[in-house]
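Mods, move this if it's the wrong board.
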Amino acid sequence: MTVAEIEAWLRQEDPKQLEQLWQSADQIRRDHVGDAVHLRGLIEISNRCVRACWYCGIRKDNKNIERYRMTADEVLQSAQLAKRLGYGTVVLQAGEDPGLSEPWVSNIVQRIQSDTGLAVTLSLGERKPHELRAWRQAGADRYLLRFETSDSALFAKIHPALGHSSRDRFAILAELRDLGYEVGSGFLIGIPGQSYASLAQDLLRCRALGLDMIGVGPWLAHPETPLGLGMVPPLAAGEQVPADERMTLKCVALLRKLCPNANLPATTALATLDGHAGREHALQSGANVVMPNVTPIQYRALYEIYPGKACVSEAAEVCAQCLAGRIASLGRHIGTGPGGKTLD
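Not the wrong board. Structure tokens:
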């Protein structure tokens, strides 16, 4: 697909044409990755962060939230719960927290794999090469790092400069590939100042990167941030990509066409926009992964990167039962194993 073709789809509003897009993407998904929906237990291990991103609720300058960092035993217990619920992977996610040191993370990766046999995905931000290498050597299977936008000027506007240098995310993604990780990335949809041409380039960048997993979701600003409080002037004048469900589903479907073998999650942000059927719509538009939350209940509300997150107060066991029913209602089944490159 060309940039012009992608941009035309992003602008498309004809329901009949969009239905053809959803159906085409769903058929490609069926042909390339099958009917299994792979469940990956999400563990939000820390809401501490050294970054000051203009939209994120756990940014370092937000003084109105209670900070936490899970203990190793709490993380292991959450992984054990994911194992009991039949998930093949756990995802350890956090703000960019230096307190999650290289040896601490290495140790917990080893403990999880030794105790549960689960695949381990890390999503811990822009970390140093020696940390990424050590965690891969410890057994981590995947690393997720969203590039958020391929427009460097737009990226700079939503990520203010810090006292320490920020690493280039595309360089980090290349390092992860060289280290043997399965590599996940993705972008935000509807960032203030994002044009249709810019979003089309994001989609093409995912194909060029050859990503194993691609997570996309609508831009949702937390109210306790400069963008959420309206303290920042518009980032750009002119046409603006909407941060809504339809645009997100267009991107999921186009990604399935561009990257037919990638794992595409139905993200929590989409479920937040449409709690009734957001995940189902994504699964019918090319997605094949869901990431149910197995973080202890007492921490979930504190990991508030944006307001109103889906399933914050729902017990993991209840969520698992609900997902099983929803997936079955689509004529799909829950996948077994880690659901990686081989989709076993």
